[in-house]
Specification:
This protein has ten helices and two strands. With 231 residues, it is mostly helical. A hairpin with a 2-residue loop joins strand 1 and strand 2. Helix 1 packs across helix 10.
């Protein structure tokens, strides 16, 4: 895997340093709260953290079905899926340099979680503004939720995917095991730089997760490319 330009991560993070209330901080507030032990998590507060983080990161735009729901639409997801199974908690501390068998086990857990999130919203959201509807749950929503709660996967949104295409046109641009394994290889190939960034970019006394650093890098690459085209 090719080397990444860590300056892009620095440029992304600089926005947070320049503005104490920048929207990018919503992820920090959200993830920091979910790092608490399960018994210290208040479900109402956790639901608000998740909802506001998703809003800050574009999941309540225009025609989004979430825009038509209050924050409590996420409550049962936390109670019945994300916080119920203790197995998922270990995804927060995923060490991608561990042996291949452990990575395989965690990847299986990750995609099991992805399916449960998508199934949850399909089941819970069947009516929007009094009209019965069948919704489609995107990888973008699912991965943003996982990133906000467990910090173990980048958010597969528009700019992130654009960044992947710039990095390697054959990378794989949907959230599946192939593209995720490729991301692990990007980390391994750039381990020294990424580990240093993880240590340096502190929030609430915690290190930035590896996959959040990759999220920032590829998102910034895609954003810069789009901005350049528009100009």
């Amino acid at each position: 895997m090719a080397k990444i330009d860590i300056k892009k991560v620095d440029d992304f993070y600089k926005k947070i340093q320049e503005d104490d209330n920048h929207r990018y901080k919503s992820w920090e507030h959200c993830f920091n709260y979910f790092l608490n032990p399960k018994e210290k998590i208040d479900i109402e507060k956790a639901t608000l953290h998740l909802a506001f983080y998703l809003a800050s990161w574009g999941m309540y735009r225009g025609s989004s079905y979430l825009l038509q729901k209050d924050y409590l639409i996420h409550k049962k997801l936390l109670e019945e899926v994300l916080l119920k199974d203790e197995e998922y908690k270990k995804l927060q501390g995923w060490d991608f340099m561990k042996d291949n068998e452990e990575n395989k086990e965690n990847i299986k857990l990750l995609f099991d979680l992805d399916k449960k999130i998508k199934d949850y919203y399909k089941k819970e959201i069947t009516c929007i503004n009094g009209i019965k509807k069948s919704i489609s749950v995107s990888d973008t929503l699912s991965t943003k939720i996982i990133l906000g709660v467990f910090g173990c996967v980048p958010a597969y949104d528009r700019y992130f995917i654009s960044g992947l295409k710039i990095y390697n046109p054959k990378f794989g641009f949907t959230f599946n095991k192939k593209s995720f394994n490729n991301l692990i290889e990007v980390y391994i190939s750039n381990r020294e730089d990424i580990d240093k960034l993880s240590q340096d970019l502190n929030f609430y006394g915690h290190k930035y997760p590896i996959m959040k650093i990759l999220d920032m890098y590829f998102w910034k690459s895609g954003f810069d490319e789009d901005t350049s085209k528009n100009q």
